[in-house]
Design brief:
This protein is an alpha/beta fold. The chain is built from 9 helices and 7 strands. The chain has a 7-stranded parallel β-sheet, with helices on both faces. Bound molecules: NADP nicotinamide-adenine-dinucleotide phosphate.
Amino acid sequence: MSSLTNQIAVVTGAGRGIGRAIALKFANEGAEVVVVSRTQENSEKVANEIGALGGKAWAFAVDVADSAAVSAAAEKILADCGKVDILVNNAGVTRDGLVMRMSDADWDTVLNTNLKGAFFVTKAFSRAMLKARAGRIINISSVIGLIGNAGQSNYAASKAGLIGFTQSCAREFAGRGITVNAIAPGFIETDMTAELNEALRAEILKKIPLGCLGQSEDIAAAALYLAGASGRYVTGQVLTVDGGMVM
Ligand SMILES: NC(=O)c1ccc[n+]([C@@H]2O[C@H](COP(=O)([O-])OP(=O)(O)OC[C@H]3O[C@@H](n4cnc5c(N)ncnc54)[C@H](OP(=O)(O)O)[C@@H]3O)[C@@H](O)[C@H]2O)c1
């Protein structure tokens, strides 16, 4: 039996990149996966990939920053799937800019998606988890939430906030057997980092002791550790997966 057999996992931002890798990894371990992204097309693509590998998946297009849309989707997911065992809050965006020049809209978009979105989704599924007295919640933060980054004040604030949210939820839900942890990825090869120019990429590489960017699968492996039996006694932690960049 695989490690996540009979488990239902909801993964937000699973249409591409890290979320997609987590969805595929969990499905490969026997979980049934609810693939959530902004676009139905991307969600369906990943759900079909899981189906083609012999797994079971549902595809949803939900804007995690829209409280009403999240509530409605959660209700439907719980009705369709009967339960949710694992929740991964992975949906995230960047809108980089120096503080002096950052628009209010760019600040809001990043905070609303990365932080408020995780709150909306967690709130929507926590009742079912609390009732079941079991659950795993994994929030995808970032090393930028630990050390900051010039030009990413909105993103750093959202990811640092997500760590505080993680620790608070971990304390709130622990009595009901629910663990809540964060993963702080370093620089991972996805669409998000594909925008980096060569000079910036070279600068970043100098700061990574292992000498390369990470792959989405590296984060998926960490998520599996926290979601599976191996993560049973781990809660309120930030697992940094960054090639040694922050130590
Ligand atoms: N890549 C890195 O180096 C890195 C490092 C540290 C942390 N992270 C974090 O890891 C997570 C995934 O990053 P990634 O690099 O895989 O990003 P990505 O390739 O840009 O993919 C982002 C995913 O999030 C979804 N999404 C964005 N806004 C959403 C919203 N409002 N509602 C629902 N879904 C939304 C996108 O949906 P569509 O597919 O429909 O567009 C997409 O599936 C993010 O939270 C990011 O901050 C990434």
